[in-house]
């Protein structure tokens, strides 16, 4: 199947065409993103985000240049968005650490009320997830199951599980960022 045939079939939601495109471009996109992130785990999550965006946009694909250029542009945008978020988290963490070093609000970071607020916000964030993402998050992050164990329990592939988990973590971070306060965000930085 040629690339053009794969793109046309992808627009018709053909999963085999998507798989062919994924296999063709995964390595190149991974290496490209690794140059931005310097972090293999984050890079793998970003690669999944790139292909998820491709799948979500499949019916509106209007490739004006080359498909490769289109896909790498998505990758670049995904990387820049994530790096901007990381920079924001780092700024927030530095501010909180600065306050702690000055003795301001160090009690507030550790007190029981704030811990309960964080737990409640996390519960709300998890509750708002679609069922499979919620299950993936609970199995892996709260019950400590490996990707393989959790994927087997959910009766899905490891890659599909990783996509669900990656999207769950992303949604939870965004929820906490939107609904939390600055002292809770220091806890958010550690949520991976």
Structure in words:
With 192 residues, this protein is an all-alpha fold. It folds into 2 domains: 1-104, RNA polymerase sigma factor, region 2, helix turn helix motif (Rna Polymerase Sigma Factor, Chain: A, Orthogonal Bundle); 106-192, Winged helix-like DNA-binding domain superfamily/Winged helix DNA-binding domain (Arc Repressor Mutant, subunit A, Orthogonal Bundle), CATH 1.10.10. It has helices at residues 3-11, 15-37, 40-56, 67-101, 106-110, 112-127, 131-142, 147-154, 158-179, 182-189. α1 (3-11) packs across α2, α2 runs antiparallel to α3 (40-56) and α2 (15-37) crosses α4. The two termini are 38 Å apart. The model is unreliable at 187-192 (pLDDT under 50).
- CATH architectural name of the largest domain: Orthogonal Bundle
Strand content: under 5%
Annotated CATH topology of the largest domain: Rna Polymerase Sigma Factor, Chain: A
Q: Can you tell me the residue ranges where pLDDT is under 50 for at least 5 consecutive residues? A: 187-192
CATH class of the largest domain: Mainly Alpha
Shape: globular
SSE class: mainly alpha
Spatial separation of the terminal alpha carbons: 38 Å
Specify Rg, calculated over alpha carbons. 19 Å
Helix count, DSSP H or I runs of 4 or more residues: 10
Q: Tell me the series of helices and strands, N- to C-terminal.
A: HHHHHHHHHH
Percent range for helical residues? over 70%
Task: Average the pLDDT over all residues and give the rounded result.
Answer: 79
Q: How many E strands?
A: 0
Biggest β-sheet strands, sense, barrel: none
> What is the domain total for the residues?
2
CATH homology superfamily name of the largest domain: RNA polymerase sigma factor, region 2, helix turn helix motif
